[in-house]
Every structure is written in C-alpha cells, then in structure tokens.
Amino acid sequence: SPRFRRLALFDDPKPSGSIAKAYSGLSRPQCSVWTQLRTSHIGLNAFLYRFHLAPSPDCSLCLVPETVPHFLLSCPRFRRQR
C-alpha cells in the first residue's frame, strides 16, 4: 500500500546488526522473551500494574517494585537460580 511504502522509508523492519547478532541462533520464543526483558514489557507486577492487571507493582516477597532488574539481579526468590 502507499502508506506502507511511506512508513518503510522511516522504519526499517530488520533489526540492527548488534541486535540481529545477539538474537542469531535463538528460537522465536527465546527472542520474544529477550525483547520483553530488554523493553520491560513482561509479565512482572511493575508492568502489569500499569494496566490494572496486578493489585500492586511490588514484588510479593520483597515489597519493592517488581522490575526486570529486581527480578534478574536482587530478588531472593530467585537466588538459587542465579
């Protein structure tokens, strides 16, 4: 469509080289999880609360915002997996 061609001039649908390299060899579901983690658009309370899908933005164990950095780096619930 004409609209698509105009938008394609501004928005290259292919990922940049560094992203493409980081995602090479990963399955589509793995790429999806990585993208969700990088953008913080993932099913953690801090994100879900913005859409009234969680009662609180906080981690149920730590009572601090359940964000990607908290989930990956500091939540005691996942200490053993780290």
From TrEMBL:
Name of the protein in question: Reverse transcriptase zinc-binding domain-containing protein
Origin species: Mycena rosella (Pink bonnet)
